[in-house]
Amino acid sequence: MKGKISDKALEFDKKNLWHPYTSMTAPLPVYAAAGAQGVYIDLEDGRRLVDGMSSWWCAVHGYNHPALNRAVRRQLRRMSHVMFGGLTHRPAIELGRRLVGLMPEGLDRIFYCDSGSVAVEVAAKMALQYMQATGQSRRVQLATVCGGYHGDTWQAMSVCDPVGGMHSLYAGRLPVHHFAPRPQVSFGAEWDPRDFEPMAALLAAHHSTIAAVIVEPVVQGAGGMWFYHPVYLRLLREYTSKYGILLIADEIATGFMRTGKMFACQWAGVVPDIMCIGKALTGGYMSFAATVTTPRVAEGIGSSPPGVFMHGPTFMGNPLACAVACASLDLLESSDYGRRIPQIESALHRLLAPASSIDGVRDVRVLGAIGVVEMERQVDVAQVQRMLVERGVWVRPFGRLIYIMPPYIITDRELEQLCGAIVEVISRP
Ligand code: PMP
């Protein structure tokens, strides 16, 4: 397979294919992947990299997993896809049953969709339609905290961090929502009640026009890899309930044990009214997501004309995705991740600790299978990534952050290689 991709092919990629968050005129370098197996990504040039990213939080069981491959192949023999409008099928029902069993109590009405961003759009539409249908039509806005990330589609973008997100690019065109400051008290620190005061004040002032509050529970991911105190989330649940506002938990990145709990909401013991899941739902095999809500919200939406929820993507309930998601849930349930993730967490603490004393490092933090090195300054992505690849690891920094969330199957030795490479690269003057 060595050298299989020609220079011409790579030239085509550079000229014609958009990669995520990159320029078409001055694109960042890309590396050609030939295959992926377990915790490794194999490059076309023969190099083998320990994967520190789980391909953006999703490949939690590693790549090319025999059980997941089997599930896809088995389903492929029956049907890869049929429309969900007017038809149903075993994989969708089976996955639904499994999810109802897994979700926090009360979340049992499931809307399958295509991707995380769409799951967030669906959640926002559910909240707005619920308010409309239940005679609360003044409630048309969302509230959230700064530093969040919820996806790249329109409604999702409008609740991303207003400074670091894409608001300035689309100023005047995005829906206007309410933002409280980013929660300040970190996970594991002593709780300070003043942290919730701005959100309490925001809700007190604007509750009559707010349909829902949306947050990433406990871990703010792509908006800055920040871990905040679960009491903040608990208070958010109390206040939203008090004002009759819906609480949307975006568990797209945190769900399926990434933080050490099945869902990050469980750190605070709260049940949201709407939960978005995606990414690891299919073990990283394909794009798929779901927006899950309570009977109250679903019945509210159905209670007045048009009585139907107005969303229905072409690939809704895709059988291949449902089948592989069931197999991924089997692995989650039969694995010893419950024991392994705390071990990964301690290894990350130990192995990233030396970074704290390196010049230019602002903070090192770890939660579950997530490790973050926050630098003082913007990271030169192309340069740092090249140095990491030279050391046999795959990490994709952004902003001031070099962070990892490896597949749960990673061994201690591979973690040592991953963290060792990061520490070595940032130690260089
Ligand atoms: N919400 C969160 C918390 C995410 O981390 C992401 C993706 N990074 C999304 C939503 C959007 O998901 P997708 O990229 O599948 O649209």
Outline type? globular
List the ions, cofactors and other small molecules found in this model: 4'-deoxy-4'-aminopyridoxal-5'-phosphate
Q: What is the architecture of the largest domain at the second tier of CATH?
A: 3-Layer(aba) Sandwich
Number of helices: 13
Low-confidence stretches: none
Strand residue content: 15-25%
CATH topology of the largest domain: Aspartate Aminotransferase, domain 2
Q: Numbering strands along the chain, what is their spatial order in the largest sheet?
A: 4-12-11-10-7-5-6
The main sheet comes to: 7 strands, mixed
Task: Walk me through this protein's architecture.
Strand 1 (33-37) and strand 2 (40-43) form a beta hairpin. This protein has helices spanning 7-16, 54-57, 66-78, 90-102, 116-133, 154-158, 197-206, 230-243, 295-302, 319-334, 337-352, 381-390, 412-427; strands spanning 33-37, 40-43, 48-51, 109-113, 141-145, 178-180, 210-215, 219-220, 226-227, 246-250, 274-277, 289-293, 361-367, 370-375, 393-394, 401-404. By secondary structure, it is α/β, with parallel strands linked by helices. It has a seven-stranded mixed β-sheet with strand order 4-12-11-10-7-5-6, sandwiched between helices. The protein has two domains: 7-61 and 336-427, Aspartate Aminotransferase, domain 1, CATH 3.90.1150.10; 70-334, Aspartate Aminotransferase, domain 2, CATH 3.40.640.10. The protein is globular, with a radius of gyration of 22 Å. It has 13 helices and 16 strands. 4'-deoxy-4'-aminopyridoxal-5'-phosphate (PMP) binds next to helix 5.
